[in-house]
Amino acid sequence: MSDNRKAERYINRVTNKKNLEASNRFFAELVEEIHARGMKVILDGVFNHCGSFNKWLDREEIYQVSGDYEDGAFVSKDSPYRNFFGFQDQFAWPYNTTYEGWWGHDTLPKLNYEGSEKLYDDIMRVAAKWVSPPYNADGWRLDVAADLGHSPEMNHKFWRDFRKSVKTANPDAIILAEHYGDPKEWLQKGDQWDTVMNYDAFMEPLTWFLTGMEKHSDEAKPQLKGSVKDFEDSMRHYMASFQTSQLLCAMNELSNHDHSRFMTRTNEKVGRAATLGTAAAEEGIKPAVFREAVVVQMTWPGAPTIYYGDEAGLCGFTDPDNRRTYPWGKEDIVLIDFHRDIIRIHKEHEALRTGSLMFLKGDDNLRGDDNLRGDDNLRGDNNLRGDDNLLCYARFNRREQFVVLVNNKEQERDVELEVWQCGIPKKAVLERVIISNETGYSLMPKQYEHISRYDLMAVTMADDFDNFTSQISSDAQIKDYLSLQTDNVQVVNDSSEETIPLYIIPDQAPIEDYICLEALDGSERELSDTDILITQNLSEVMDFSVGDNLHIQSSDLEECDFPISGIVRNYLGNAIYIRQSRYEALMGNGSYAANSILAHLSDSCTDPVAYSDQLSRESDVVSCNSVQAMRVEFSKSFELINCVVVLVTVLAAGLAFVVLFTLATTNISERERELATIKVLGFFDKEVHSYVNKETLAKSYSRQPKGKAVGVDGATKETYGENLSENLDDLLKRMKQFSYKPYPVRRAYIPKGNGKMRGLGIPSFEDKVVQGVFKEILEGIYEPKFLDFSYGFRPNRSCHDAIQKVNKHIMADKVNYVVDADIKGFFDNIDHDWMVRFLEHDIADKNFIRYIKRFLIGGVMEDGKKLNTEVGTVQGGLISPVLANVYLHYVLDTWFVYISKREFSGEMYMVRYADDFVCLFQYEQEAQKFYRMLVERMKKFGLELAEDKSRIMPFGRYKGTKESFDFLGFTHYNVTSHWGKYCVLHRTSKKKLKQKRQSAKQWLREHMHESIADTIEALNVKLTGHYRYYGIYGNYIGLQKYYKYVRQELWKSKRRRDQTYWLTWKKYMNILKIHPLEYPRIYLKSAY
């Protein structure tokens, strides 16, 4: 609409004084709520100009139309606001267009403070009003504050008076100015601004250093990229303009609404959206370089400020392309996690917020060919200076010290830094807090100093150890070695249980030649014959001190108390160190059995990693690792948890990275500690089958429930446990020799809701034990990879969670159509070849995959005949649900995310519980397109949609249809609440209700001859289970109907029992008063 005088709704909103008063009240309440949540509100003050819509000018004549306001300066020369603006032509009224525009823009009329004392006074009242009760804002951000009046003298006077007004009203309010150039004259006396948006002492120097780009992407200066000297000189020059308090609260941004986004600057493209197109902003970006910038942002003096969307990877050229909408559903999840972690680090450590800053100088050697030392971007003699592309600095106070290294070069480099000046003592051990590289980041702690003094570690079975050592004794590549016993032991305290590696060292063996044990003060610590030493992290995690007893259980299930004699630094993760004689004194003579070596390699071994791999293939060796490989492999274990690829060595060729160190101790999570324990003993992700040991098998045995149906071997938990230790030893030996083969599963059938039977497979008990361990391994690998909308058979996720997620999407998002699809016989049609390919994508251990194949093709015993299972995974096995989730993760979930970003423009969501899923769409044509694509996708992987059960329907708050769909046993339907609001409610689906009634009726007939009291006691358990599942918001009537049906059928069954019909309804009701049936209850009380 070009004539804004007809914009009635807008006019009413901005001119109706009741609306304006209500808006003010709402703002006051909003600020109060924000303060209650520990946050603050800074207002954006634009005092150099107003808008042409403003009532003072009223160029759009909307206030004139309303009739309740005085004429604006544009409309009439008699306007009380005439002097608020500077008009060139004093005779051009009415509708005078000759007013001065800010930077020439007629939509932004410049305010004329020199010509109007009233304007000046009004703005001073505004400055105080919004930081005073009842509004209580926490300060002002001033738009281009130095470009205010027509002279510097006027500007300085204005901001001194502005500060006086604000600070008188609210002494704690901050005055933060947007300023380009040196802010010294505005900050030096402390009588105008508190601080600035830090362009010159942060955004610009950092952008030049990391990308060689100007902050609008309008210019590239390759000579500045990687130039530490230029970066340091700029920082020193501009930071000198700040007082310390002003610097520490300066707004350090990487992007904002006026400049190109930093992520886009990393592609080093010069131009804007008008010249290059918007798509170019996302081409060739380097998230690793962006993460470098974020680490500097969070560790540099100042207040790190994130422009919305930067944390999610949003791109864009300069204004207006940088104001794209937040990428809902298409966020860079790893980048969001990275921001969350680095922000936490910033908040947790005072030194990163208020500590001193020091640039560090060091010598570095570029790895690789000497020819790499030349650099076209360097000035001068083309010899690589030690400080180019390598930014090193420290943040420190008296309590903690941090070192930050930013390597902006493509080659890996070894760096030696002098850090004593920032308070780090000579014998200190630096612990890494975070590392970022091309493919992700890691929080895995790593200490820098004497991590280990051996070159290689090999683990065997105790029975094979002598044969193994006789072979390596004559190996020229082994210089010397130390024999020892390693074990994974369970350590228990009052509140937790941990799996910890135990190192048992022979008496008099020189451990200091292989492992450096250091006391907490940094001095070397000997391991005496009476010592039991634990690492500091174990001490802190489980709250152990010197003198406490460690209650341990060995992998042979032997238990004992170990008295702690000392605590040492963490070099091999959590660990316990003990001498052989002390161990045997506690555990019994003969309990020691060497099974590991720590070895030094000779000069003839030119490739330790290859040699380690060669040894690991020996039949006697369970695992073998070189220390060189351990750095990389140890890091890779955290890929399973963080879903990122991590490098512990400084950098691989071609990657940009950041490393942050601190002296503070960082504990790792329980899952990380468990994996770290495995890794220390040499069980890496390429050898995950090695996690199958006697201890994990024993744990799996203990978790198997009693009284379950038996497999074809006829064994129960009780019979298998009669000789548990021998059975587990035999099982482990067969698995190591790969002679273990799963039994065929025994076929059993249970009724389905449609009258058909569902086939289940009951594994043998021993197979259940093995599958229990495999299930843990698979969950450890895939849980971090599975997507958030997958709910079935996953820890801490339920059907109710999935239902609530569906509700949330339908009720809160733009959902108008539902694709209700059903996969025909999913478990029976999983393609084994594709299943193995998916597993091999994430697991390099071929032996582990080999056992998974054996379970897949193990066969089924039915009516005494073995049936081959060439496709499908039999329901009933412990690993079947995880394998099914893996299959659909790649067939459906990741594909859905991929096409949602590339093939569709509207909102689309999926919620999956095992093989049941619904997809929700904003647009009908996109729902239809997706369904066609889904059919083809299923065919590619050997699956088929049941067309009679699959459909596309209109559904959602914008549709108002009476359509409904079934999902997870519930019928979902649209209703309008008592308050007139749209919501989704649920009732037990007709199919499930019929099935439940038939099941209850059959059960009551089978128990009709029991006493009514016993029957009711057992029946109440079943009723409670029914209510817990179906007792959700809106389904109370359905529960009541089921309750009444069961109550009626119970009465009928007891009357039928003796055919006398003595049990009248009245007598029955009296019995129920004594033995009541469980009454319906709603367990899930919210829609989402």
Number of strands: 38
Total of helices: 34
**Mean pLDDT level:** 83
Biggest pleated sheet: 10 strands, mixed
Architecture overview:
This protein has 1088 residues and is α+β, with helices and mostly antiparallel strands. The chain is built from 34 helices and 38 strands. The strands form 9 sheets. Strands 17, 18, 19, 20, 21, 22, 23, 24, 25 and 26 form a 10-stranded mixed β-sheet that branches. Strands 9, 11, 12, 14, 15, 16 and 27 form a 7-stranded antiparallel β-sheet that branches. Strands 1-4-5-6 form a 4-stranded parallel β-sheet, with no helix packed on it. A hairpin with a 5-residue loop joins β28 (745-751) and β29 (757-762). The longest helix has 23 residues, at 880-902. It is globular, with a radius of gyration of 36 Å.
List the helices and strands and how they pair.
Layout: H1 8-15, H2 17-36, E1 43-45, H3 62-66, E2 101-102, E3 105-109, H4 117-129, E4 139-142, H5 152-169, E5 174-178, H6 184-187, E6 195-197, H7 199-211, H8 228-239, H9 244-248, E7 251-253, H10 262-265, H11 273-276, H12 287-299, E8 303-305, H13 333-348, H14 351-354, E9 356-359, E10 362-366, E11 390-396, E12 401-407, E13 413-417, E14 430-437, E15 440-442, E16 447-448, E17 456-460, H15 465-472, E18 478-492, E19 497-505, E20 532-535, H16 536-541, E21 549-553, E22 559-563, E23 566-568, E24 576-579, H17 580-587, E25 596-601, H18 608-616, E26 621-626, H19 627-636, H20 639-642, E27 657-662, H21 670-680, H22 694-703, H23 717-721, H24 724-736, E28 745-751, E29 757-762, H25 765-782, H26 799-812, E30 817-822, H27 832-842, H28 846-856, E31 860-862, E32 865-867, H29 880-902, E33 908-913, E34 916-921, H30 924-940, E35 951-954, E36 964-967, E37 970-976, E38 982-988, H31 990-1006, H32 1012-1030, H33 1036-1058, H34 1065-1074
Parallel strand pairs: 1-4, 4-5, 5-6, 7-8, 19-24, 20-23, 28-31
Antiparallel strand pairs: 2-3, 9-11, 10-13, 11-12, 12-27, 14-15, 14-16, 14-27, 17-25, 17-26, 18-19, 18-21, 18-25, 20-24, 21-22, 28-29, 30-34, 30-35, 31-32, 33-34, 36-37, 37-38
Helix pairs in contact: 4-5, 7-8, 7-12, 12-13, 22-25, 27-28, 27-29, 31-33, 32-33
